[in-house]
Write a structure and sequence with these properties.
By secondary structure, the protein is mainly beta. Helix content is about 0%, strand content about 55%. It has three domains: about 60 residues, Roll (SH3 type barrels), CATH 2.30.30; about 60 residues, OB fold (Dihydrolipoamide Acetyltransferase, E2P) (Beta Barrel), CATH 2.40.50.140; about 55 residues, Nucleic acid-binding proteins (OB fold (Dihydrolipoamide Acetyltransferase, E2P)), CATH 2.40.50.140. The strands form three sheets. It has a six-stranded antiparallel beta sheet, with no helix packed on it. The chain has a five-stranded antiparallel beta sheet with strand order 9-8-7-10-11, with no helix packed on it. The mean pLDDT is about 85. Pathway: Protein biosynthesis; polypeptide chain elongation.
Length: about 190
């Protein structure tokens, strides 16, 4: 058990029969009336962000979430198969628990989030940036880079993103996994 005094960004708590993580909180002490804590909570099961107000001193149940490094092996009808990097045990993760499954390539390291008490998988975290190779895109035209225009490009994983016009087939690019967007070209 914890109280609102223990709130910090990233703290996981059990609330309304679901697991939430605190995205943002603010302690408010109005001139009149009791103090309270205004929070933004993100559901770890649905990804939905809700706002909630707790009275100061309110008791909450915290949840212990463990991040364990896993390596992506392959995908089949059951889901995405990962291997624990320390114990070599394999786990299957359903597609809806992965933020950007199109950016996963064989052998890639990610963190799988487990609810420690129940040993249940509740999500995954990809690294902030991944480097992938362009397998197909229309060729760029010389001198056509003055504007901030973009074109579709297919990555080695089969995912499609928008890239600047100067990117060509075979280029290796860095992609932001949080926004699923082009970040920069990787120098070889």
């Amino acid at each position: 058990m914890a109280t609102t005094a223990d709130f910090k960004n990233g703290l996981c708590l059990e609330y309304n029969n679901d697991l939430y993580t605190i995205v943002e909180f603010q302690h408010v002490k109005p001139g009149k009336g009791p103090a309270f804590v205004r929070t933004k909570l993100k559901s770890l099961t649905t990804g939905k962000v809700v706002e909630n107000t707790f009275s100061a001193g309110h008791k909450i149940t915290t949840a212990r979430i463990e991040r364990r490094p896993h390596q992506f092996i392959y995908k089949d009808d059951l889901g995405y198969h990962f291997m624990d990097s320390t114990t070599f045990e394999q786990v299957v993760v359903e597609e809806h628990l992965i933020d950007n499954p199109g950016l996963l390539k064989d052998g890639q390291e990610i963190d799988v989030l487990f609810h420690a008490e129940e040993e249940k998988i509740i999500g995954t975290e990809l690294p902030a940036f991944v480097e992938l190779t362009i397998t197909y895109t229309e060729p760029g035209i010389k001198g056509d880079t003055a504007t901030n225009a973009s074109k579709p490009a297919t990555l080695e994983t089969g995912a499609e993103i928008q890239v600047p016009l100067f990117i060509n087939e075979g280029d290796k690019i860095k992609i932001d996994t949080r926004t699923n967007s082009y970040s920069e070209r990787v120098k070889e």
